[in-house]
Amino acid sequence: QVQLVESGGGLVQPGGSLRLSCAASGFPFSFSMYAMGWYRQAPGKEREWVAGSSSGGSTYYADSVKGRFTIARDNDKNTVYLQMNRLKPEDSAVYYCNADLAYFDTRTGSARYWGQGTQVTVSV
Fold first, then answer.
1. 35-44 pLDDT, tens per residue?
2. 105: phi > 0 → left, psi -120 to 50 → alpha, else beta; which?
3. Listed residue (115, 111, 118, 117) closest to 35, CA to CA
């Protein structure tokens, strides 16, 4: 019933941009109450926290993406976005969104809800 559905992934050249979307539905509480986050995992690498958005609208970024990625949320659309600019090959990964009432859990990877992931490939 609870769903987080990512979209927007694909193949892009280095230096290009993609905007990922994560549409939430079926939450037991209002979407606006949830902290949202983005993680990514590349083959053979550890899962990496990318960005987060608190229920109050504060945003946070991993150093590796700071200045290039922007997390935003539209509570009216129950959607969180990840705008990715100036993409690098090392950004290639499966990107997952997550959600939890506690921001801490979205940050540490213990969020209650996770999306299915969307593949981002940055390559020539």
1. 999 999 999 9
2. alpha
3. 111
